[in-house]
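Subject: sequence -> structure tokens, single chain

Hey, anyone have a minute? Need the predicted structure for the following. Not urgent.
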Amino acid sequence: MRNVLGAGESRVLAEMCELLVPGSRAIGPEHYIERLIEGMPEREEDELRAAIGLLASVSGQGTEVLAALADSTAFGLIRRLAIEAYYGGFAAPGHTGPTGHEEIGFTTPQTRRLHKDWSFLSERDAEPAGADPIPDEAEVVVVGSGAGGGLIAAELAGRGHDVLLLEAGGLYPAEDHTRFELEARHRLWWPARFAQTGDGPVALLAGRCVGGGTVINTKVAMRAAGFDLARFDERTGLRMTPADLDPWYELVERWLGVRKRADWTPSVHRVQRGFAALGASLEPVRSYTDYNCSRCGACLQGCPTNAGKSALNTFIAPALGRGELRLRTHTTVERVLIHDGTVSGVAHRRRGVPGVVRARVVVLAAGALNTPQILLNSPDFTGLDTPSTRLTGRTLGLHPARLVYGRFDEPLDCHQVYPITAHCLDHQESFVVEGTTIQDPVSFAESLVDDRGRPLWGRRLATVARDYRHWAGLLVMAGDENTGVIELGPGGDAVISKRFSPMERARLDDGRAFAVAALRAAGAREVVWSGLSTSHVQGSAPMGGDPVRSVVDPAGRSHDVAGLYVGDGSLIPASLSVNPSLTIMALAAKVAHHIAEELS
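Reply:
Had a minute. Here:
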């Protein structure tokens, strides 16, 4: 390994990591960061070295002086890297003592068997040499392979159409899923993006792999409520009743094998006491997991048993196995191409090399952040300057969530459960509560905040993390009003902003208060919570009957461009009160049906 840190930089990093995450110095966090630098883009490396330089100015002055920098980007960056090193289970060469995983008791069956290979830290380009070239043309190009794109691509390919599926991430089957949190973050997840709100950032989480978010989600399968669907007409003129959507739900539920998860672990029964004490219900969820699910808790790092019926398992792998579908990975689509009001293909980049695929139909299913980003980066699209093109990215719904954790006297081991087995829908029009759950150690420690919303660090963080096995978490998701905005930054990247209304803030506060009360009533000795995050972004290119209030029509077709479709969570006109993945797939099945009719 090349020497990428100077002696002074290494010393400052070791000192600062120990102050931010007590105990971390023992495992050599500076060595972790040195490995990480090898794979960093130049801009990120410059930011890191600047952060080291700033923190060097307070070196040796203790936690009180360091606290003055707690709101700085440098502080946040080094805190994150120290957490990754220690709670990610890293150990520098020659280290013989316990790792952070062992200190907090994170010793799952998978991690006990796992020989951690840290070479992914220095990966700059994961696409293997000799990969199949991208063809110059296809009848249909589908961009993105998640809940919507994977279904649409497989459905159309199964009907005999020439479909090319393009995915920005890689293809990772179950044998690659080892519950190695940091490797999964690197290979399966998009690098974290944030919506700036004025009330603190909201982390925007999404999958970047074949199967998309369905590979790293909890497979909760919930239909939209009647009041959710009523809001569609209010917002975009999309008149859709439960009777309209039920056949598509039934079809997708049959494909996925949706079932009720009544196989609760002791942690769920423990917190149920608290719900009962409040006069609230806690009921089993329905999910797209089969009976091979061992409740190992690895869902967010990829299911190692294929029990989770992701878009990869359910739709894409069978289509590939039958030779019906062409798939190309590590391919980023940058813009759509339009000629005389009709889509003509996409421009993409792979291994830094640009290219073009011509197509009769293009389906954008890259997610509710990436789909509008592609459209906004497409001069052929924005140049149309119509009401619907101008609306693109202006109606983003976040469905913000936070985790609320209660510490119990006995270990509840919520890292070894099916993470979302039960839910409370008593307050569904304001917030929904799901549990029990806990994030894996890095994400758990990184997301924790204090009563004023500031990230936990130092002795307080170490004390909370030490009792990892005793914390039981409830996920609280609040309804929002689709007022997020996606714009383009100088480099064409998506810049996301959102201002919470008084009603939205009240829902967030009420949901947290309810979860705190339930955990306390169940016997929790202490309660902590995370900052806001979401994996349920939706509504940024909504479908509707009114071209002034929607980007695509009720079939998912662009109002302005023939042959251009949207097929992901961007379609949903108003944020749902529940996990949207089943609705995304139901709408995708509907879109696939209409495309097949058009092509016929």
